[in-house]
Every structure is written in C-alpha cells, then in structure tokens.
Design goal:
The protein has a seven-stranded mixed sheet with strand order 9-8-10-11-7-12-13, with helices on both faces. The protein has a six-stranded antiparallel sheet with strand order 3-2-1-6-5-4. With about 400 residues, it is α/β, with parallel strands linked by helices.
Amino acid sequence: MKQFESIINTAIQEGMSDVYITGEHPMVSRKAGRIEFHGAIRGSHQEIDNLVVKLLSALQLDDLRERKSVDYAMSVGHARLRINIFTSARGLSLAIRVLPGAIPTINELNLHPSLYEIAKMNHGLVLACGPTGSGKTTTIAAIINDINNTCSSHIVTLENPIEYRFQSRKSFIQQRELGAHMPSFAQGLLDVLRENPDVIVVGELREPETMKLTLSAAESGHLVIATMHASTPEEAIYRLCNAVPPEAQNEVRYQLSLTLNMIIVQQLVHMERVGYRVPLLTIVRGTPSIKNIIRENKLNQLNSVIQMSKHEGMFTSERYFDEYLGGRKTFSPYSQVFRHAPEEAQDIQYQSPLTDERGEASPPASRKRTTKTEMETILIRADLSSQEMEHMLTINEDESLQDILKKMEK
C-alpha cells in the first residue's frame, strides 16, 4: 500500500491522468493523452493480488469473483481515484483515473462561461455527452459545485461510482452509489422523486427504463443533469427517442421537446500553443427551432440549425474551436486543475448495519461469499510450497474444540 500511495502521489505531481498496473509488466501511465512506460515499477502477479485484497472490501472481493471486475472510487492521500479492477491474460489488472482533491471550477476547466447559466435553471434536462475519458464527469462536478456555491437547493446524485465527493455549502447535497445505496438507476430515480429534490444528477443514461424515468423527472419540474455516451447531439437525441418501442417514440420525442435545456458534447483536443489538452464542446440549446426538430423527428436538420444559431449561444465543435478556443487568451494548465489539494468533503462514509450491503433483505442462499480473511489466506497459501501446505492445519469457524483436537492428533 505504501508503494501504491507513492505511485499515486507521483502521478498527481507529474500530471498523469491515468495509471495502469498489471502483473509482470512495467507500470503504464497516460499524461497529456500520451502513453508512457515506467520500467522501474513492476509488480509480480502475487504482489498485484495482495494489493487488490488491501484495496477492496469483502463485498467488493465477492463482486470481483462473480463479475471478474469491480468499478469503484476511493480516496488516497489528497487524491480521489476511480479504479477499475479487472481480469486479463496477465491476471488482475488496475486502471486508475486520478481525480483532483478539490473540485475545479468551470473556468479552471477551460470551459465556455455559458455553462454557468445552468445554475440559474429551475427545471428541465441538461445532457452532458462524450466518450469515456473525455472529462464529462469532471464537467458535471464543476456544474454541481457551482449550483452548490450559488443556490439554495436540494441536490441528489445517482452515481456509479461516486467519483467526486461534495461538501454541502449553500445547497444540501446527498450522493447515492449504484450497488451500495440503490439496486439500479431506475429504482434510484423512483426513490428520489419522493425526496423533494430541486436538482437530480443521473450518472449515466444507458437503460431504457432509466431514460424514460429521467425524462419524466425533468417533465415534473426538476432540473435533471445526466450523462450519456454519445459523440454528437444527434446521436444523443436518437438514443433517447429510440430507447422505447416504436409506438411510444412520439411520446418520448414530445417529452424531450418540452424538457430539453441544453446538450453538451465534450471531447479533449491537444492545443499546440498551450501544450496540453483542453475540452472541445458542441453546445445545443433547447430553443423553439431545436424543439420543433425533435418533435417532428427531423434530426437530419439539426446540424444546420446549430450552425445558424450562433446568436442563440449554440456552437458546432468546429466553430467552438475556432471562435472560443482560438480566441481565449489564457488557459488553466492541467497541473493547476488537478492540483495536490485535500478533499473538500470531510463527511464520514458510513454503511448502516440495518441494511444489507447489497440492499437486499438477505444474501442469496445459493451464494457463499469469501471473506477478506479467507482471501488473504488463499494468497498466503499460493506462496507456500506443497510440502509446507501438508503441515498446515485449517480451522473452520463452526468447528468445535473437540473436532480441532482430533485434527491435531492426525
């Protein structure tokens, strides 16, 4: 763990966005979008296994055995990490995304100032889209923190996992994580509507039921901010409208046309004159012309309307690059945004013993979980020779003293 913490501290200081660790292979990092190898840092398969046992809880180890992967977030030193542990041909591997301890502002992220307007919205839908690793989660965190600093609101987030932890300031923020606090995004949305929120944040729109409930929440008078994997505004709208059977698509298009406030599509591009990557956005606003295109299902006209709506604050990615990024005089460097700083949220993370960790009344009877102690024992045994194993005495928790003595006599 000490070596792991040292790696993370070095990653922060040197501006690495990602760290990859796998058995019998040099550590790999991503810096300014480029892959780098670190030959001096190499762990054995056994060392990686031991690290995973130290990083995961008993429940997470159980998930790893069942699904062969685990996705979660944790705090190490002054950094927040999103970690994906998965199985590969090299055994267990870790993909680690380094997040800043302090949540950056919209301006620090080199984003367009129109994103500050989201804090003034009382209802409707804001979609943040982009591929994995484009920074949309950090953009959403900056928007939420702007609302937190300027508005008296009740904000509930539904995430998988909780990446940035928020400290309530002017707003009251409650964060729920998939698996730990809710069985699904759909159930989380049903719950949150009974909790009188002003702002609902949905970590990812993927399942059709989640998409339908998100639109219903926006339609019922809440400000809903959600993320989606889509590379263009047209793709985002298409995915939302086609998440339901054909006979229900007209209704969904009508709901979306009523609720849409803004679509932000984000990617990262390298700016030669500053020497690092910055967000490149496409911004679509819910104007009458955009809503009419959605309602009448004329998405082939969407890009033309965006191009002609400069005066209404819309940007294609090309115009955003030329006019906004090209005209911006100063940029915040990556090292400043992901600076070495303590986490703002200091709340103790607590799991009530009154609830099962899976949110179930009781674990499935057919499933036997491996405890953390049992997993550590398995790893210790892996290092022992077969001769040493013959002299080991295994004691089960439910064995009586008499049974143990009989074993020792043998």
